[in-house]
Structures are given as C-alpha cells and as structure tokens.
Amino acid sequence: MSDSSGVSNQEPSLPSGDVPLFGVLAEYSTPQQLLAASRVVRDAGYTRWDTYTPFPVHGIDGAMGIRPTILPWIVLGAGLTGVAAGVALQWATNAFDYRWIVSGKPFWSIPANIPITFELMVLFSALTALVGMLVLNGLPHPSHPLDLKQRFLRVTDDKFFLVIQADDPSFKLEMARELLAGTSPVVVETVDEDRVTSDRLPRPLVLGLMLLVVAAAVPFGLAAKARASTSREPRFHVVPDMDFQPKMKADRANPLFDDQRATRAQVDGTVAAGELHENTAFWTGRVDGVLVTSFPEESPTSEAAVTRGRERFGVYCAPCHGLVGRGDGMVSKRAELLAEGTWTPPSDLQQDYIRTMPVGQLFETITNGVRTMPAYGPQIPAADRWNIVLYVRALQRSRATSSSDLPASQRDSLK
C-alpha cells in the first residue's frame, strides 16, 4: 500500500537473521526530484551515500557536495614521471652507456629526444588515469547489494535512485527512512547486504590471473637469456619480415657460380641505364685526359648558376668546410672536440693552391672524393657539381680581390 505521495506505508522489513543491512534506497521518477533529494541528504550531513542515474545529470556533483577529485594531480605526477623516465632512458643509452658519433652531432640534445619523452608522458598519464579512476571509485564491483533489487534494474532505463549506506557514521534506520520519505520518492525500502554471491573470486579466475602473470614474465626472461648467451642458431623471429630472404650477402660463398663468389664483378663494357655519357669536359672535367681550366659550354656561369651552387654548397659542403669554405664547419668543430687531436680538418678552400687549381680538378674532387672526403658523384648531378665549383670560385674571388676588379665608376668613388 502507498499514500497519495506514492511513498510506501508498509514498514520496511528489517534485515533478518545474520544478514546485515546495506542501506536505505529511494526511487525517483525525474532528475529534478533526485537533485532536490541530494541537496537534502547533503545538508543532513551524510557522507556515505550515492546516486544512480540512467544518464549524466547536470548539477548532480554540486547537489551531492562532491569535491574536485585529486586524480588530476595524480595524473600530473605520472606525466612528469614519464617525462623524467624518457629523458633518463635516452640520456643513459645515447650519452652514457653507448656513445656514438653521428655526423658530428652532440651525444645529447633535447630536440632529438622529444618524441619518445612525449610518448612516455602520454603512456604514464593514460594508464595512471585509468587505474586511478578505478581505485578512487572503489571499482570494479564484481557484486553489489543493489544488483539483487528487481526495481533497481530500471536505473539503466528511466528511474533515478539514491541510497544512504548503513556504514555512514550518522546512519540511523528510522531517521534515514523518514528523511528520504520527505523528498517525494516513488518508494523507500531497505537493502540487505549481498549474501547470495560468494565473497571469494572464482577459482578458475584466480588460476587464470596467476597463469597470466607468469606468462607475462616469460618474454623478459627469454630476452635476458638471449643477452647473456651465445648460439650458432638464429634466434626466433616472431615477425621475420625480410630477415630470411633467399639472397646472398656480399663476400659470402655462393656455389651457384664457378668462382664461388656471391658478389659479382661488373661486366666489362656495360653502363647503367641513362648513364651513358660522352667523355667530355662536362661529365669528367677533362679533355683528352687533361684537366680543363675553364667551365664547359654546357655549364652556364650566370647569377642563377651561382645561386644554385650556393644552395648545393650549403647542403653538401658547408657541414665540413664551413659557409665560407675555411674548413670550420660544425662537423669539423665537433670532431676536433671529440677526436682528441686525431682529427684531420677539411681543406681551407681559400688556400693559394686551391685558388689556382684547375676547375676540372675541383669538379673531379667533388665527383670522386679525396682522402677522407667521400665521393659525391652518385648524389649530386653533374650540372650541380659545376654550379658548386662556380660558387667556390666566387667565394675565393670575394676573399682575394683588388680595386682593379671593380668597375671604373666604383673605383672612382673610392678615391
């Protein structure tokens, strides 16, 4: 039976026997009723109570008096820990444990290590946010006393519920029931503790979790064993990709050929497609075997060619020779600091013997390399090699010029 307000007149049955009371449950039809009831319970001083709704209700946090969670600070700490871990990991591996010079670059620099640092920050923050949310909310709940209430099933559909728990320091059954009855609920009833569902985790679940923990340690153990042992057999590859192609590596024996060599010599008289050029000054820097002293007709000596040469010089030459060709590029400076007196610096392009060197020899040097300078012929087209030579000549002219090289009008202005 219920009165006109819809509140049950039947005295809620007290928990019987050894089944303790979980709390008092009130059902509401609208979110507005739930908000009003939440304010009443909040003002009454209860601290162990909660609300349940089929969808988020705007303002419910304030109505319940819920304070801002500490979770953002925990996530911030986890993110900073991820940043520190990323920086420490990369510093230890690249700048401390395995120092390796790459093109004269520093062993440690912040910009090069930002990506991994950022990823670890996101990883630590995301995992902490998930685990922290579960812990702070007391989740997961494998079972809950409200699961045994038939009417509570409508919490996922169209009903709103509020429960005051019996373990609240201010809880008294009759007072809690009367308080909720005054908030215009559909019904108020008691909820017993769940003594139907076992308190113990299912044995198969426990065994499965233990097996999972043990299995998770296996890959780390195998990795440690592989690092500390040697074997004539190749290690197991989960994703073989291109590791086991049917191919012969350089300098390996190959029984397919009579000479048993995997590396085959080039066939005499053959030229790669598109690389058949006449033996002219433009392609070799020589005419009849003699180095040329002037630029070939195919290589223009215009301002545009100088500009192009300056650009290519900055890409291929400046890292070692420097922007003005004095042999003081950043790679050379870095190597001087690390090589401890064993580094041979690049040539100063302003030296007299280089200024008087035939342009064909400069072209040939760029093409084939000299001493520790590698060959750039495969990387730089012939036209750009001549443009670089033209720019080198412009650099040399700028450093060794006289007033006689100026136009007459400019020479007069100097007087």
General description of the model:
With 415 residues, the protein is α+β, with helices and mostly antiparallel strands. It is 42% helix and 7% strand. It has 14 helices and six strands. It has helices at 31-43, 60-64, 71-97, 114-136, 173-181, 203-228, 281-284, 303-316, 318-321, 330-339, 352-355, 359-368, 382-399, 408-414, and strands at residues 21-28, 49-52, 160-165, 187-192, 286-287, 290-291. The strands form two sheets. Strands 2-3-1-4 form a four-stranded antiparallel beta sheet, with helices on one face. A two-stranded antiparallel sheet has the order 5-6. A hairpin with a 2-residue loop joins strand 5 (286-287) and strand 6 (290-291). Helix 8 packs across helix 13 (382-399). The N and C termini lie far apart (119 Å). The model is unreliable at 1-16 (pLDDT under 50).
Poorly predicted runs: 1-16
Write down the overall mean pLDDT: 86
Number of helices: 14
Series of secondary-structure elements, N-terminal to C-terminal: EHEHHHEHEHHEEHHHHHHH
Say how many strands there are. Answer: 6
Instruction: Calculate Rg over CA atoms.
Output: 41 Å
**What kind of oligomer do you see?**
single chain
Inertia-based shape:
elongated
Strand content: 5-15%
